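Run log // design_07
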């Protein structure tokens, strides 16, 4: 049973501290009585090579409202019953959750497409900047060509 209660069909948050994936998904699922499908994705800091930390910064005046607009666009485009998009900012270490997306729809394909759409936009849209600490130095991370290609498919 979920302790957290979601009040709206679109729950968008920018978090400065860790997120409880299990609690968030339990609450989201409990709030989706009309859905036939719930899909989720959790992105974590990869323990690649000598990565010691990942830092995400953002443009605070636009981040939350931009994410909310994105969730609303996904809701309309895919007929979602609800969407959850939680994104961390700050410094994280390998294995920690960075982003959690969940979508609910009457049918599974719409729920999968909605989650994929949200993640492609969150990965490549301009609200977040990433840098990794490798060894003793920080390095900015640019979106890959594949990230841009993933985003273009939704146009």
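design_07 sequence
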């Amino acid at each position: 049973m979920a302790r957290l209660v979601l009040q709206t069909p679109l729950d968008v948050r920018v978090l400065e501290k860790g997120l409880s994936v299990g609690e968030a998904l339990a609450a989201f699922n409990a709030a989706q009585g009309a859905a036939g499908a719930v899909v989720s994705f959790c992105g974590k800091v990869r323990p690649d090579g000598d990565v010691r930390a990942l830092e995400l910064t953002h443009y605070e005046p636009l981040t939350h409202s931009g994410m909310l607009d994105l969730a609303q666009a996904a809701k309309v485009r895919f007929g979602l019953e609800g969407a959850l998009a939680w994104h961390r900012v700050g410094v994280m270490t390998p294995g920690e959750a960075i982003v959690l997306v969940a979508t609910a729809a009457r049918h599974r394909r719409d729920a999968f497409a909605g989650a994929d759409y949200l993640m492609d936009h969150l990965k490549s849209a301009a609200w977040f900047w990433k840098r990794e600490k490798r060894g003793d130095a920080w390095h900015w991370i640019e979106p890959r060509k594949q990230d841009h290609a993933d985003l273009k498919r939704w146009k």
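The chain has a mean pLDDT of 92.
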